[in-house]
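Hi L.,

You mentioned the student needs an example of a multi-chain input paired with its predicted structure. This one should do, with 474 residues in total across all chains.
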Amino acid sequence: MAARRGRLYALGVGPGDPELLTLKALRLLRAVPVVAYPAPEHGDSFARSIVAAWIEDHQREIAICIPMRPGSPPAEVYDAAAEQLAAELESGCDVALLCQGDPLFYGSFINLFTRLAAHWIEIVPGVSSLTACAAAAAVPLVSRNGTLAVIPATSDEDQIAARLAACDSAAIIKLGRQMVKVQRVLRRLGLLDGAVYVEHATLPTRRVAPLASIEPDQAPYFSMALITMSGRSDGRS
Amino acid sequence: MAARRGRLYALGVGPGDPELLTLKALRLLRAVPVVAYPAPEHGDSFARSIVAAWIEDHQREIAICIPMRPGSPPAEVYDAAAEQLAAELESGCDVALLCQGDPLFYGSFINLFTRLAAHWIEIVPGVSSLTACAAAAAVPLVSRNGTLAVIPATSDEDQIAARLAACDSAAIIKLGRQMVKVQRVLRRLGLLDGAVYVEHATLPTRRVAPLASIEPDQAPYFSMALITMSGRSDGRS
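Structure written out for the whole complex:
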């Protein structure tokens, strides 16, 4: 008889506040013998920090090293991580893989998922940074018949403008070093004055402010701008 | 001394699976004397059904009647609902307002929020249908530098096409009676064959299938299509 293979649970653990964990993610996290999470080369894993209070001594931990440098990590990083997880699953261990926010919304999990297609995987959705930032800012993301665009700040200036022209509201995410460009394109489009800046939405370091008031070199990677087209300062809509 | 006014907690209770409630929403739900929720004229409140197991006898319940007819409810519906909630808050009662999915992502809460601006409100983000559908279908929503568009199926055909042209992946939501039109525009754009249909993502009635295989009159309101531009059947990308 073939040995039972392990199951991989990709758990969305939410945007940072440990209380934004779901009951389902908590149940599965506590049920598995192995807990895996992405971690930088130096320093702590953000995903692990969110659920640290629930991890128990008898659980084995696997830190998957994902170097945090500008640009995307090379394919070999994900190949190695997927092999590490596959070895656990093949040995029969169930694994909870912690994913900050939601696993399939800009998650590095996506790179592992495509490499682990031969395995049994359950994905548990989590609260994303998108809705967490809207809640922190008390800004409606989108309503009724509106189209919402989620635009990475790494897009080039013309692309950002084209994408803003095709929606009713937008979130420009991962501002970080792209802040000068994002402020410039929004100013050009008459959208800067109505834009709201949110940083670390659910953490004690939370900051909500008019985007126009933020110094360009102050924005961390985990920050976003919320924009509604009806907020144009030039009266167009 | 002025009497203490009540606090309104707008709780995102997730897309349907009771286990996708967050720990924070659960804590606040159990702490308040009054639980309010939107309800149709006839039948049960979907938001209430998600957390029914946690509501206790000593909690007072307020069903806010929101008629479910084509088009948006008239402003008077929300005026009356906001007055009802305001009266509770002014009498000093804390109220948990249950919001299916996330309160600020296409939520009818948005209509109440703008009317209750004078009150103390805390918004607790929830798991949205967007990430829940992606998890159910095991389809990455968006990754790396991609732009995601969320497009209501009520948009007209040219508008849907224009918005799809300005993103890397998309979710067309609230398919319901708009299914014929949505299938037609996706077929025209070479996107139908790659599109995935998801209905009731986290409920026992869940259905995931190729969008092209769905009979147009079968789609309920709570269904969506997930589309990636790299999935074009004509080879464009």
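You could point out the following to them. Chain B has two domains: 8-127, 130-231. The two ends of chain B are 66 Å apart (CA to CA).

Best wishes,
N.
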